[in-house]
Amino acid sequence: MRIGSLILCCVVPVLAFLGAVASAANPFAGSNLYYAAYVNEANTSVRTFRGLQNAGMKVLRVWLDGQSETQKGTNINPFPDLEPVQICNSVSSCYNDTVLDHLDEFMLLARSHDMKLLVDMHSFNALQADDVYGTEYGIADFYTNAIAQEASDARFVHVLNHVQTTLHQPWKELNEYTCGFEAENEAMIGDAQTFIEDHQQWQCDRANTIKTELKANTGVHPRPHWVVLTGGESWVVESVQPGFLNCTALDVISIHAYAVTDYYTSSDIESYVQQALDANTKFIVEEWGVCYYDTSNNDYPSGAALPTDTRNYNIQGWAANITAAGLPRLYWEAIPNADPHWGGDYEVGIVDGPSWNTLKQAARDALSAPAGFNFSEYLL
Ligand SMILES: *[C@@H]1O[C@H](CO)[C@@H](O)[C@H](O)[C@H]1NC(C)=O
Ligand SMILES: *[C@@H]1O[C@H](CO)[C@@H](O)[C@H](O)[C@H]1NC(C)=O
Ligand SMILES: *[C@@H]1O[C@H](CO)[C@@H](O)[C@H](O)[C@H]1NC(C)=O
Ligand SMILES: *[C@@H]1O[C@H](CO)[C@@H](O)[C@H](O)[C@H]1NC(C)=O
Ligand SMILES: *[C@@H]1O[C@H](CO)[C@@H](O)[C@H](O)[C@H]1NC(C)=O
User: Fold this and answer.
1) What is the CATH number of the domain that holds 175?
2) How far is the CA of 24 from the centre of ligand 1 (A)?
3) Does residue 13 form part of some domain?
4) Which of 2, 67, 200, 274 might form a disulfide with 241, Cβ 3.0–4.6 angstroms?
5) If you measure from the C-alpha of residue 194 to the centroid of ligand 2, how many angstroms do you get, rounded to a whole number?
6) What is the tens place of the pLDDT at every residue in 172-225?
7) Which ligand is nearest to the CA of 246?
8) Mean predicted lDDT score pLDDT of the chain
9) Which ligand is the nearest neighbour of the Cα of 46?
10) What distance lies between CA 364 and its chain's CA centroid?
């Protein structure tokens, strides 16, 4: 389907299945900024958080992988990977904590704007770009090799025990600054849906490591107020696996989907939400984005720019469908500068972006809608 011809036929009424939990809470909104740690001017970061706060957004999802160049028109300071030279496997002097030190400051800023960070601890993108794990194992063996699994677990433990520079407490105690952790952005994508189905235990095993480390703090906090998430796959059907639903260490299943049809209220999204409710787990639309171009939304788009009104109409309509499903959502991505429209383009510039007001309004609208899942204990 081409977005340019999308017609918003109707604002869908609240789904009947949400009736029983309609008073539970409201869906929240947030955004992604994978290179957040590298934004090179304090003012740019402040402006970002002011904008997001103004939209009522609660969560910003960040990654830990090194970046060396300007991203999406945002000036950044280059930083190395957390494991820049070799796989560290618990040898603490081997990790380069620069990225964690930067996020230390960034999380304080987030908190002062009533937001928390959701931390993704490694990304498929880094693996594919041949970071130390990609070089050693490639994008499939990384998930099947026992030593790679052990080294990944060691990385998570290292991150969770990183001592915040000014608060002098490890991240695993700072649940007022972070709301959740996940092992990998889009684990196993590029290996086919059947590979994800065959290796779904990988997610539960990694989540167990993360959860165990967080739970070791029960003495400090009566309950661990964090969620452990899957980090998403490429579309809804891939993102939801039975072995994710039944894994007690996984609190939240992340949905990443860029096909408009994945959020059609008339299709599967409703039955998926019901599966999560039945399994006593939660869903988040952790990545969604509305294309700037007139190509199909999930077609790594680049084409002719849509008229602003059409794109805004699409943002509104898609957000309304996500709201009707009762789901919280993080946009890919609200960026701190005017959007230069590089590459596959879903971004919305917080500063002067012609779609920012629409996205902001959609985020605010969610705050008064009924939710399928109650996240309030994890948010500020
Ligand atoms: C949502 O969760 C919060 C925190 O656990 C709780 O106080 C509140 O009662 C819940 N809301 C409903 C309607 O269950
Ligand atoms: C950052 O913001 C402060 C206060 O608003 C201002 O005085 C300063 O000039 C800004 N710095 C830059 C580099 O824009
Ligand atoms: C970490 O990386 C930074 C930036 O490249 C570098 O200056 C620093 O020496 C590195 N630290 C360690 C412990 O390797
Ligand atoms: C969870 O689901 C997976 C995939 O269907 C299955 O292999 C596993 O046995 C289930 N585990 C439990 C504890 O039910
Ligand atoms: C919302 O879902 C309805 C029902 O499936 C569909 O007709 C409509 O096109 C969707 N809206 C958008 C903007 O995708």
Assistant:
1) 3.20.20.80
2) 7
3) no
4) 200
5) 51
6) 999 999 999 999 999 999 999 999 999 999 999 999 999 999 987 655 554 557
7) 4
8) 90
9) 2
10) 19
